[in-house]
Amino acid sequence: MTSLSVVVPAFNERENIAPLVHEIVRHLRGRIAFEVVCVDDRSDDGTRDVLARLTGEVPELRVFAHQRRSGQSAAIRTGVKQAQSAWIATLDGDGQNDPADILRLLEARDRADPRTRLFAGWRVDRQDSAGKRWASRWANGIRRRLLHDATPDTGCGIKLFERAAFLDLPYFDHMHRYLPALMQRAGWATASIPVAHRPRRWGRSKYGNLGRALVGLRDLFGVSWLISRSHVTAVSEIRGGGAG
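Structure tokens predicted for Glycosyltransferase family 2 protein (244 residues):
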């Protein structure tokens, strides 16, 4: 039985994806029953061909491909829907997340209260450009003030969460950046776990600071509205005979 599904969204990561998959396998094989689910978001640099070859080398690997480019949140959701485990770990396809930290998140889960259904990576030593770090701090500060999600870093790609809880969340583009607030809205607890962050070895980031900031502000106000219009209702099952 698969105990963990590692979902990796990928877009134009031809040089990064094979080393990442092999690294995931090296850290997890023999420690936990797992699968790796890679979702190619209509890459045009040969990423899909690399993944196809890897399926013959890595028995734990399953690959799915979008027929049109749909974005990172859609790729994550595709992977989660195809996953065979009740728990999901996610990693960015660029290799900046360290797969060794999956084990750290699993250890945190095993120690946590059962109501904690999301363990979010927290990049305490960012290995990005100064401009990207500044934009991230600015966005995180605004998000925390509006959403009160008590999460220092929602942009980190490495996360661990329960599959059923994730699929119960409202879906929208860029939702992966608001998972702590959305999980809390659904009545679950979340935790932030310090993790490593590595420099990008090949390729370049797919996001510009300005474009991400403008889209992020629109999404942020939308999530804030969604939370303000929500409440969690406790449900209990009634058993026994009917009225006599």
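The radius of gyration is 19 Å.
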